[in-house]
Fold this protein.
Amino acid sequence: MSEPLILDPSQLPDISNLVLEDDTPLDSFINEKQQRLLTTVLYSGGDTGITVPFIAAANVMNITGAEDWWERQVRSYLFWEFGKPPEIAIEIVSPTPGNELGSNLIDYARMRIPYYVVYDPLRELRGSTLRVFELQNQSYGPKTDAWFPEVGLGLTLWEGEFEKVTGTWLRWCYPSGAPIPTGGELAAQKNAQLSQKDAQLSQKDAQLSQKDAELSQKDAQLLEEQARTKRAFIQMIELGLKLKFGEEGLVLLDEISAISDVGVLQAIASDTIAANNLDEIRQIYQS
């Protein structure tokens, strides 16, 4: 981790005439998108793994922001104002290369920046697309990986689409190498999860509807079976009344047909032959 800078107030430089911002855009659209991908993702609301206060602006991180951003001395990154150099400096090589592998290596080492990364998407420097350097004593040496334990982040090359542009992008990643999701990717994940839950609920609703239909079918079958049983008992009762009492016995048939309790009808059918008169039969279903 970069060492804190402790300066006596009398040692602070005069910045009144120092050019801190010139408002001149120098980056291509792709470089500007790449810088935005490296910075905004850390504020997207996802789990970044960073455990310290930080600022991710251009190539600056692991810094606590000033309370008043409008103050001249904190509108740009002045080491003595923020109290330390950044942990990582990233240079994105443009079609017009600068001194990414030349004087920058010396300058950043003098600034005591622990890690220096050169991303060369167009291979302007005729070598690897991604080079990582680590401060070793007073100078930089090549680093074999792109994991930075001090900030709990790594860098990876990722093939995909960002802001409607498909290509190879440099992205912050977890120890597993999986890219830290952007706000758009997080929203897409949540939408996919909601869609999956909706699909599951729809499936459950369909299953419940199917069960309701099956129960309704069973109820209909039971009702139909009860109706058949009732008709069979009434036919037995009608036959018994005729045999026992003749046509006179049929005067009870309308009352008996109105009975819905199959058990009562069964009892009447069983006792009709043994009954001595119609009153005994009435007592069976009126009691």
